[in-house]
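Exercise 7b. Backbone tokens:
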């Protein structure tokens, strides 16, 4: 499993060097961001394993790319630089399969009685919105439901902005 995750992360890094673009188009309402929409989906159904939840989120209709979810173990995780993320019993990452979209999310299941707020603070304090080589996430959401933590760094929208001076 570690080899598969390492290969997936290596592919993401390699492809992020090749192009710096975002997909266009989104059916989201003007007020809802990508993050708020996906967090709402998490709140509505936070049941199952971390990987099952991550798979439901990455297949949400707002997602404008082919994504996937993989289990993760404690240690160095994408988006957190040189900080090891520890203190969870089960985790899953969800992200684009290919591309330079500044999007990475995690579902963490903590032990019963764990200090959820301290874990969330660790994530917030160590997350890097610019972990992706040539793009930067616009929002970060770190929330929880019971002992399940939802973490996401992403663009606010998948709509591509028109260049300055051009007609829309």
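Sequence design result:
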């Amino acid at each position: 499993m570690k080899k598969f995750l390492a290969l997936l992360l290596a592919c993401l890094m390699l492809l992020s060097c090749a192009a710096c673009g975002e997909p266009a188009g989104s059916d989201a309402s003007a007020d809802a961001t990508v993050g708020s929409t996906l967090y709402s989906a998490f709140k509505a159904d936070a049941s199952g394993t971390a990987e099952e939840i991550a798979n439901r989120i990455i297949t949400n209709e707002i997602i404008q790319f082919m994504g996937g979810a993989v289990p993760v173990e404690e240690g160095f995780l994408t988006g957190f630089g040189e900080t090891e993320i520890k203190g969870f019993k089960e985790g899953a990452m969800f992200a684009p399969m290919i591309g330079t979209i500044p999007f990475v999310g995690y579902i963490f299941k903590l032990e019963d009685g764990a200090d959820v707020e301290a874990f969330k603070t660790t994530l917030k304090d160590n997350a890097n919105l610019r972990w992706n080589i040539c793009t930067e996430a616009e929002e970060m959401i770190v929330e929880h439901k019971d002992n399940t933590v939802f973490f996401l760094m992403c663009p606010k929208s998948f709509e591509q902005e028109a260049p300055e001076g051009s007609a829309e």
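Instructor comment: The beta strands are 67-72, 75-76, 84-85, 90-96, 104-109, 139-145, 148-154. The first strand starts at residue 67 and ends at 72.
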